[in-house]
Amino acid sequence: MSAVEQHARAHVVTDSTDYSTDSAAEEHTVPVALTYDPEADPPIVRMTLPASVGTVPGDWVFDRELLEKGLTAPAASGDIRIWPCGRVQAIVELHTASGVSLVQFDSQTLIRFLGRTYAATAAVTH
First vs last Cα of the chain: how many Å apart? Predict the structure, then answer.
């Protein structure tokens, strides 16, 4: 089975000092790519943000388990923290040397993505 890729729209708030705006915190709705390759690195998911987010763009790589745990309770690993926000949202908090960005997803989007990753893993192991 090939890699799982899911595109989503996310709301991003950043306080990055390298991002030139007129306000202290800038908000964006951006396309985000979520990918998972069960053959290359089964425990890892990748979240890719566009360059329009300032200094936070690029690939953020973290354990699939962190994403799953963060949907029901606060979870953290290194520069990434994930937690539920109300009943239908989830926040992925990203820390860099130049600031913090919050990426807000509909939880259902992340749940669907996780379901697809587990199906892909099952297909590889059978």
Answer: 11
Q: What is the pLDDT along the chain (126 residues), one digit of tens a residue?
A: 589 999 999 998 877 654 444 444 556 788 999 999 999 888 999 999 887 655 566 889 999 999 999 999 999 999 999 999 999 999 999 998 878 889 999 999 999 999 999 999 888 776
Nearest to 8 by CA among 45, 62, 63, 55: 45
Q: Which amino acid is at 7?
A: H
pTM: 0.85
Residues 105 and 29 sit within 8 Å (Cβ to Cβ): no
**Domain 4-125: which topology?**
Transcriptional Co-activator pc4; Chain A (2.30.31)
Domain ranges within the chain, ordered by starting residue: 4-125
